[in-house]
Amino acid sequence: MDSELTLRVDGVTHDLEVDTRASLLDTLRQRLGVMSPKKGCDHGQCGACTVLVDGRRVLACLSLAVAQDGHEITTADGLSADGEEHPVHRAFVDHDGFQCGYCTPGQVCSAVGVLDEFARGWPSAVTADVAAAPELDDAEIAERMSGNLCRCGAYKGIRAAVAQSNAAGSGAGTDPAGRSR
Questions:
Q1: Which of 17, 35, 143, 166 shows the greatest Cβ crowding within 10 Å of its Cβ?
Q2: Measured between alpha carbons, how far is residue 9 from residues 17, 49, 85 in Å?
Q3: Cα–Cα distance measured from residue 85 to residue 98, given in angstroms and rounded to the nearest whole number
Q4: How far is 63 from 137, CA to CA, in rounded Å?
Q5: Alpha carbons 31 and 118: distance in angstroms, whole number
Q6: Domains detected in the chain
Q7: What is the pLDDT of residues 125-143, one digit of tens each?
Q8: What is the mean pLDDT of residues 105-130?
Q9: Distance of alpha carbon 171 from alpha carbon 179, whole angstroms
């Protein structure tokens, strides 16, 4: 059974008719040609398909496209505003936070989501005092990014990129494209 829906992806509105069983990932890649989110495991275990839906991290392989009707979807490609590199992109380059690059789009989207969650004061599983504002140290970054796997093992660079982005304020009070809210 097909359903009509509207997806706003990286600032562009798309009116589609899709099978109600189609994943957001397959819809993005196969119907819209948006190749930034990758199909890694297709079971929600690797994070290569991570996108931002209304600014929150979502595994696109586990989300139905029809569930995202009317929502704002941002991929790693859509993070750049007006052709300018997003600060998280720059930090990944600065710290060699990628090797083969397959997981990088999901890692970048997850990092943007992590920075926003941290800026909102949301604790993680390793936050010592959930009533206090968390400190974004290496353990916090590792825990918050743990849903994104890197088969090349670039975790040290990824954590350094998230830390640099946090120090630069690349999440607090901004939308996914890095613009002030």
A1: 166
A2: 15, 14, 18
A3: 16
A4: 30
A5: 34
A6: 2-75 (3.10.20.30), 87-167 (1.10.150.120)
A7: 999 998 888 889 999 999 9
A8: 95
A9: 9
Please tell me the pTM assigned to this model. Answer: 0.91
Kindly state the DSSP code that residue 64 receives in the 8-state scheme. B
Using one digit for the tens of pLDDT, what is the confidence trace for 150-164? 999 999 999 999 999
Q: In 3D, which of 105, 96, 102 has the Cα closest to residue 154? A: 96
pLDDT at 168: 85
* d(C-alpha 77, C-alpha 108), whole Å: 10
Q: Which residue has the tokens 């350094």?
A: 160
Q: How high is the pLDDT of residue 174?
A: 47
Residue 143 phi, psi (nearest 5): -65, -45
